[in-house]
Amino acid sequence: MASIVRTPEFSQCFGDKAALEELTDADLLTAVEFDDTGDYLATGDRGGRVVLFERGDDIKSVMPDGRHKWACKYRFYSEFQSHEPEFDYLKSLEIEEKINQIKWCRPINGSRFLLSTNDKTIKMWRIREREVKEALNPHNIFARPESAVAEGILQFPKLYSKGSQVTAANKRSYPNAHAYHINSLSVNVDGETFISADDLRINLWNLDNEHQAYNIVDLKPANMDDLNEVITSASFHPSSANLLMYSSSRGVVRIGDLRASALFTQPAMMFDNHIEDPCERSFFSEIISSIADARYCRGDGRFLFTRDYLTVKVWDTHMPSAPISIMEINASLRPHLADLYETDAIFDKFECAVSGDGQHVATGTYNNAFQVHDREGRMEGSQTEVSRTMAKKQRVGMGPVGGVKGGMLNGGGVGKSGGGRGAGGMGADGGGETLAFDKKIMHLAWHPERDVVAIAGLNRLYFYTV
């Protein structure tokens, strides 16, 4: 059956519009996350700030393909400073305030909780609405107390409500557990534990105990010269509290069962992204096969979605030998990996977001654009350039879309961390469109129940209905 073509439709935008050269690093968004209900969304930026949005009234709209959709509308809810810049005096290193990841926890007694982390310290925040009251004399707030007593009338001031105020309080901090930069957080389905991952280790925490963590994965060799891979992401299974997975820079995803061993040494299942054909191997093969992001589908977690530099792959846990679907994202860049390596753009890490039903996946690319595919790898529409005006569409096929014309890269490099603006070069894709390597969609999230995607584009947050 042919796939229904879906064109993402712009819904909302938050953030000030500014020229690229006028933006500051502190304003760039680095994390986007919906809670389990989709009623709240949290974003983090390089300045260590967390901004919360609340779902408002839904609005009925008609999509270009004739479908009727109820578009989720969001409004600003609260903002707070999560992390401050620090200095590690033992290692003489500056610790950035940049928010690497945000994860929501279960709400308790009307309060909502989330975890946020920079490179070294994880913090738990409690967000709640508190009623603000003011004490006033109901009769005469300007009367002197002695006059009321003289008349034989003594009244206490009454409390009057002035509305509610959203407050964020740092309930716990989980410091000093990682020697390397934290890249992942994942809250367990049991609501009591979570994991944090850095380049070489994964730690298991109890949410109520910030003083102790259990190391469950350790890739650090006795001799660092023997190091051949690092951890790039980690996540708990969406419905089984004992299962977790992590991906590596070698293009491998491992799934382990904590019931089998307290230390994750032998994976129960492994998915290998390596290129086995020697004719297709090159100096850049291992770099582009590095998995930047790996996600379970919601529900039973049967399918895995992995994002490397050029593709999104879908894996079936019932058939781990090979991916069931491969979606080309940056196919036109394949002949130009040497140029991308020289500018460090090849190290950009793009995330992917999976729909609530597990049937679709969205991921970002250059030119401030993102793509939506279905699980079978058929294109669900065109590549969409993120903008608050009419979205610019480009048809994207399944295979390579042609070579890059002329000199693809003319400018400076893009940071390996992928978090900065950089001064990426300009070039053209197979359709003749100019590629802006300093404008890229790296962070996005899909609503758990609705076909709504939240996208971080530089300092602005966009909502699209798919």
Molecular structure report:
- By secondary structure, the protein is mainly beta.
- The chain has one domain (9-137, 168-465): YVTN repeat-like/Quinoprotein amine dehydrogenase (Methylamine Dehydrogenase, Chain H).
- It is built from 3 helices and 35 strands.
- The chain has helices at 145-150, 285-289, 337-342, and strands at residues 9-14, 29-34, 40-45, 49-55, 59-62, 68-71, 74-81, 86-88, 93-95, 101-104, 112-117, 122-136, 158-174, 184-187, 193-197, 201-206, 209-218, 231-236, 243-248, 252-257, 269-272, 293-296, 303-307, 311-316, 325-328, 352-354, 360-365, 369-374, 383-385, 392-394, 426-428, 434-436, 443-446, 452-457, 460-465.
- Strands 26-27-28-29-30 form a 5-stranded antiparallel β-sheet, with no helix packed on it. The chain has a 4-stranded antiparallel β-sheet with strand order 1-35-34-33, with no helix packed on it. It has a 4-stranded antiparallel β-sheet with strand order 2-3-4-7, with no helix packed on it.
- β2 and β3 (40-45) form a beta hairpin.
- It is globular and about 100 Å long.
- Mean pLDDT is 84; it is low at 397-424.
Cα(first) to Cα(last) distance is: 20 Å
Number of structurally distinct domains: 1
The CATH topology comes to Methylamine Dehydrogenase, Chain H
Q: Roughly what is the average pLDDT, rounded to an integer?
A: 84
The CATH architecture can be given as 7 Propeller
Principal-axis shape equals: globular
Q: What is the SS-derived class?
A: mainly beta
Organism: Nannochloropsis gaditana
Protein name: Serine/threonine-protein phosphatase 2A 55 kDa regulatory subunit B
Keywords: Repeat, WD repeat
InterPro entries: PP2A_PR55, PP2A_PR55_CS, WD40/YVTN_repeat-like_dom_sf, WD40_repeat_dom_sf, WD40_rpt
